[in-house]
């Protein structure tokens, strides 16, 4: 190929097209690879793993037994192990070791331990070994010896005796949770409301005997209801302690586990592929719909999903009208001059400000200034305890609304600029006012661009973590921002968030090895939530685009 031909080829622009296509392809492959990595490592966590019984030689040369799951495998330099005092053949360069999840934390103190392949004597998969998922202390591995009811061993097959009693214990635990969180929680909420109502009357000087008597009568009724529920709760706590199981662990000793502390019991080695698939789907559902346990390293993440979606919805309610109004003013009403150009430059620059700066602003302005003044004006009876003068989901949503406001303004302005001038002139010629032209013609035609700005805002806000740590997100929220207590939507409450949950589990967990798969699973779920929110907005945008396509042409 001659030099002139190469120059002509470059001047045609084809190389830049190919380079752009290559860059886009590489980016798509990298994103797909990242999602695949997160998906494989996150979703594989819920598959029922085989339980190994491994016999090995300890440091004294004696044969010991360990029961657990093989969690990881790695190759390590043999010289490093020899320096640590571990005996290995002198000519061996690499040694294989396995990370075993042994559970039984109350017995061993740790959930995991490393075993060298060179020290392993045998590795079997006994069908009778079981794993018990517990509410505390993590998993328990062992062999079922028997089932106790009221302190006495139950005759007959232990597994047949265990199933109905475990189901009974789970039903009792669900009833206890319902009473504590819903009914007793509602009573405590009403009692606190009465206390604040009485304090409000005292501050206003309206605490007459008649009004105080009404409050006292209602309080006595709630107290009586509370005592009835507490008696029922005490009875349930007594009933749930009735049953337990006896298990034999790796060292041959037997231990008794109350069924009240057990979530589920399985024998993975005895399950078929179809049974494991059903258990896998059940584990996935429990992860999505359940509540966290064990410092967020076990259980589900439903409160984090709920908090993330609710925060994004509240943020969208605030950012959309303010962004549209600002864009309409800049494009349709403001005089186009130096000042307007400076404002546009400032808006564009705001999009590049680090998010933690918005968090500091939200903490200082929304929480301390605005929330503190709201408490002094409207909630003096609750002082000095803050109501809105503390981080909550409202202030978190407003902070992210300010963070994403430039995106909505820019996208809306671009949509307004693309609307042909003759459409405005035609509307005005038919007798419509400028406001009517904007409200009935211009803004509806720009709605696809408004939705584009909202899509970009949701994509950024849903994954933000740094500002939320200052204005409302917490490690574990005792109750959801939405419940059955008036006014039902509690904007002053703190909430959980998927992004912060990833940070907390991955970097603040006391059990890093156990929490690592949950980091991948939660990250995958966060991506899925963002995709679903964006797909919903994209569908709305596409319908609006089809609706106003003929007018745009």
Explain briefly what this protein structure is:
The protein has helices spanning 3-11, 14-43, 78-83, 105-108, 158-204, 209-240, 273-289, 302-333, 338-350, 355-378, 393-417, 421-429, 434-461, 468-471, 498-507, 512-547, 549-552; strands spanning 52-57, 63-77, 94-101, 112-116, 120-124, 129-134, 139-149, 152-153, 243-248, 254-258, 262-266, 292-293, 298-299. With 553 residues, it is an alpha+beta fold.
Describe the structure.
This protein has 17 helices and 13 strands. It is α+β, with helices and mostly antiparallel strands and 553 residues long. Among the domains are: 52-128, SH3 type barrels (Roll), CATH 2.30.30; 175-239; 305-497, MetI-like fold (Orthogonal Bundle), CATH 1.10.3720. Strands 6, 7, 8, 9, 10 and 11 form a six-stranded antiparallel beta sheet that branches. The chain has a five-stranded antiparallel beta sheet with strand order 4-3-2-1-5. Strand 7 and strand 8 form a beta hairpin. The two termini are 46 Å apart.
Number of helices: 17
**Quaternary structure state of the chains depicted:** single chain
Which spans of ≥5 residues are poorly predicted at pLDDT below 50? none
Summarize the helix and strand pattern as letters: HHEEHEHEEEEEHHEEEHEEHHHHHHHHHH
**Superfamily (CATH H level) name of the domain at 305-497:** MetI-like
Q: What about the largest sheet?
A: 6 strands, antiparallel
Which geometry do the CA atoms define?
Answer: flat
Overall CATH architecture of the domain at 305-497: Orthogonal Bundle
The termini sit apart by 46 Å
Count of strand segments: 13
- Strand percentage lies at 5-15%
Helix content percent band: 55-70%
Structural class: alpha+beta
CATH class identity of the domain at 305-497: Mainly Alpha
CATH names the topology of the domain at 305-497 as MetI-like fold
Q: Roughly how many Å is the radius of gyration?
A: 31 Å
């Amino acid at each position: 190929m001659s030099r002139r031909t190469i120059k002509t080829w470059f001047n045609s622009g084809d190389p830049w097209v190919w380079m752009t296509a290559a860059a886009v392809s590489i980016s798509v492959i990298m994103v797909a690879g990242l999602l695949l990595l997160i998906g494989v490592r996150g979703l594989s966590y819920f598959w029922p793993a085989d339980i190994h019984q491994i016999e090995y030689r300890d440091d004294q040369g004696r044969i010991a037994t360990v029961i657990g799951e093989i969690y990881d495998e790695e190759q390590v330099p043999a010289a490093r192990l020899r320096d640590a005092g571990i005996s290995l053949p002198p000519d061996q360069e690499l040694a294989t070791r396995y990370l075993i999840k042994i559970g039984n934390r109350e017995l061993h103190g740790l959930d995991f331990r490393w075993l060298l392949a060179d020290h392993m004597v045998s590795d079997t998969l006994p069908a009778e070994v079981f794993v018990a998922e517990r509410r505390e202390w993590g998993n328990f591995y062992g062999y079922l010896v028997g089932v106790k009811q009221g302190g006495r061993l139950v005759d007959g097959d232990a597994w047949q005796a265990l199933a109905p009693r475990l189901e009974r214990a789970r039903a009792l635990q669900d009833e206890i949770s319902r009473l504590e969180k819903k009914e007793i929680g509602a009573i405590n909420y009403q009692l606190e409301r009465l206390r604040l109502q009485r304090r409000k009357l005292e501050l206003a000087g309206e605490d007459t005997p008649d009004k105080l008597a009404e409050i006292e009568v209602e309080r006595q009724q709630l107290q009586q209801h509370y005592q009835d529920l507490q008696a029922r709760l005490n009875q349930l706590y007594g009933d749930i302690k009735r049953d337990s199981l006896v298990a034999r662990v790796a060292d041959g000793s037997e231990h008794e586990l109350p069924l009240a502390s057990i979530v589920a019991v399985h024998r993975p080695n005895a399950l078929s592929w179809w049974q494991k698939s059903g258990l896998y789907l059940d584990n996935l559902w429990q992860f999505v719909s359940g509540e966290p346990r064990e410092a967020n390293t076990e259980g589900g993440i439903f409160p984090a999903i709920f908090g993330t979606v609710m925060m994004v919805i509240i943020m969208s309610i605030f950012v959309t009208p303010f962004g549209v109004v600002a864009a309409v003013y800049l494009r349709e009403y403001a005089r186009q001059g130096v000042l307007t150009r400076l404002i546009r430059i400032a808006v564009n620059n705001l999009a590049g400000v680090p998010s933690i700066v918005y968090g500091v602003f939200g903490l200082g302005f929304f929480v301390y200034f605005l929330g503190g003044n709201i408490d002094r004006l409207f909630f003096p009876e609750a002082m000095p305890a803050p109501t809105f003068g503390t981080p909550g989901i409202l202030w978190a949503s407003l902070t992210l609304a300010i963070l994403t406001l430039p995106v909505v303004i820019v996208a809306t302005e671009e949509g307004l600029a693309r609307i042909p001038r003759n459409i405005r002139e035609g509307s005005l010629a038919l007798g419509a006012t400028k406001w009517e032209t904007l409200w009935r013609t211009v803004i509806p035609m720009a709605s696809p661009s408004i939705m584009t700005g909202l899509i970009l805002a949701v994509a950024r806000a849903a994954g933000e973590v740094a500002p939320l740590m200052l204005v409302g997100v917490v490690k574990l929220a005792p109750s959801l921002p939405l419940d059955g207590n008036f006014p039902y939507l509690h904007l002053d409450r703190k909430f959980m968030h998927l992004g912060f949950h990833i940070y907390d589990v991955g970097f603040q967990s006391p059990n890093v090895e156990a929490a690592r798969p949950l980091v991948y699973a939660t990250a995958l779920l966060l991506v899925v939530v963002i995709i679903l929110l964006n797909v919903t907005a994209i569908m709305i945008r596409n319908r609006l685009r089809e609706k106003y396509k003929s007018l745009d042409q």
